[in-house]
Design goal:
Blueprint: E1 5-9, H1 16-27, E2 30-33, H2 34-48, H3 55-62, E3 67-72, E4 75-80, E5 83-84, H4 92-101, H5 105-119, E6 124-128, H6 131-135, E7 141-146, H7 149-160, H8 168-184, E8 197-200, H9 206-220
Parallel strand pairs: 1-6, 1-7, 2-6, 7-8
Antiparallel strand pairs: 3-4, 4-5
Helix pairs in contact: 1-9, 2-4, 3-5, 4-8, 7-8
Length: 221
């Protein structure tokens, strides 16, 4: 049976991470959270005191970074220069910084090479914002997963739980601001690929979304 590259793009809070993980598991594929790569660069930039507007500084920073995924205790961990940062990058501050640095050509060029390398063996589900449009335009199966901003904000608010320090309204405001940044940037804006299959998860369960996607992928195999 042949293997394919599956891309799942969409805005924050649409359920991409959970759906992508479960779909990859159902297909016995690798799961790659490309958004985490941008968060890793954001964390490194914040630690180094490099501004998201400093193109030269970010380019120089990227030359000193190594990013790797490792499987540990049945979970995928992201290592930045050999240090596990998986849990450190899940904060609202890192999310906003990641959205800002993702608009920088130096950062996108750096991570584009890493992502393409990861996709060479296929049999992978790539989650992100420009997977089907820029990174893997030749992918055999492309999805664009969306949901209303009210639903997405509630999901993110519940996901943050006690770890979060924002009200539901603040989460929604941050999400709307990030949506605008991601969809209006000049380089690789967030948008569905022309041949992407659009799925609105507002009124669907995770299981329903995964089942629908798996059926579509199976038909391509």
């Amino acid at each position: 049976m042949k293997s394919v590259v599956v891309t799942i793009d969409g805005p924050a809070g649409a359920g991409k991470t959970t759906v992508s993980r479960q779909l990859a598991e159902a297909l016995r594929y690798r799961y790659v959270d490309t958004g985490a790569l941008y968060r890793a660069v954001a964390l490194a930039a914040m630690d180094a005191g490099v501004s998201a507007e400093d193109e030269a500084g970010l380019k120089n920073l990227c030359t000193r970074l190594t990013l790797n995924y490792e499987i540990a205790a049945n979970s995928t961990r992201l290592l930045l220069n050999g240090i596990d940062i998986t849990d450190q990058i899940r904060t609202p501050e890192i999310a906003m910084m990641a959205s800002a640095v993702s608009a920088r050509p130096a950062v996108r060029e750096f991570l584009l090479g890493i992502q393409k390398q990861m996709g060479r063996d296929k049999a992978a589900v790539f989650e992100g914002r420009d997977m089907g449009t820029v990174v893997f335009p030749e992918a055999e199966v492309k999805f664009f997963l969306d949901a209303s901003i009210k639903v997405r904000a509630m999901r993110r608010f519940q996901e943050l739980g006690e770890k979060g320090h924002q009200s539901l309204q603040e989460v929604e405001q941050d999400m709307a601001f990030r949506d605008k940044n991601d969809s209006s940037r000049c380089i690789s804006p967030l948008k569905p690929a022309a041949d992407a299959i659009h799925i609105d998860s507002s009124r669907m369960t995770i299981s329903d979304v995964v089942a629908k996607m798996k059926k579509i992928v199976d038909e391509k195999l």
